[in-house]
Amino acid sequence: MGKKWRILLLLINICQVNSLRCLQCIGSTSSCRMVAKNCPAYETTCISLAYRSQAGSFSSNTVMKGCSTKALCNQTSVIDTGNRSIYMAASCCETDYCNINRYSTNAEFSNRMQCYTCKSNNLSCALPNLNTVFCDEVNNWCVDVLTKEITNGLVTASSYTKGCGSGEACNSLLAFDTGSFQHYTQYSCCNSQTQCNNAFQSIPILDNINGITCWACLDTGNNECAAENQKVISCKGTLLRCMEAYDQNRRTVMKGCSTVTYCSATFPTLNVPNIAEIQCCAGNNCNNFTQFPTSTEISGSPSTDFRLPMLLFTLLCTVFCIVDAN
Predict the structure, then answer these.
(1) CATH second-level architecture of 20-100?
(2) Where is the signal peptide (predicted)?
(3) What is the pTM of this model?
(4) What is 115-322's CATH superfamily?
(5) pLDDT tens sequence across 89-116
(6) Which residue, 31, 66, 28, 61, is CA-closest to 48?
């Protein structure tokens, strides 16, 4: 037993002796006072990070050196808000004190998409009322995000956003209908050429009955989603799922028709407070999850889509243009 402990201690000492050693500092590109550091076992590279911030004629450069994991290596990122830009780059190496060289970066946008954003909240989000921004590598698509809410047949809210975004949800419609309230969010994107989101988009309003019916309600604090107060509505257009939304206490706060993309997204609130979970199914009037145990077969043989991770409409450096309801 004692021999095994001696071997273990020997291995620990060997690991400590053989740990990577890097130079560490935080400062400017011209003045970064470096000190030696022994890296922990999980940090296997020496890193140099450089940040450049530019605002008008003013610019600043910052350098950080030290130990790192490989996850941070060889990363670049750009954020441009029109009046300020930030560029970051990182470089790694794997031998002792290999990050000794001076490291800096410039705001280079040659490989980045350039997209339009709305210039002002008080102006129409169309030319000539647009600015341009450079996108980063992750959000390298030009996007338009339109939102419209209708209450009792009247448009009560709408918004228009242009900017940079990701391409996972291109040309999708997140929509639901509770009978008295409808919400539409249209996500359009392009990367065919720079500034490709120059057109003025519109939300397709769904009018045609598609033959699907669902239970519907919208809780506003008056117990509208109690079983005796719910009603059946006819779904329209691409609203092909019946949905039920719950708060954190598993209390139903909303029911109705929805698009498939809405079912696979946890969209924050959508004018309905305290939504913690959304559950969807395919089949007429199948959205009675809180009234039937999950093991009970529901008529119509619905296929239930449980909530997936949030669909992130990550718009970097965009300006929201609120459009007054007509």
Answers:
(1) Ribbon (2.10)
(2) 1-19
(3) 0.58
(4) CD59 (2.10.60.10)
(5) 888 999 999 988 877 766 554 456 888 9
(6) 66
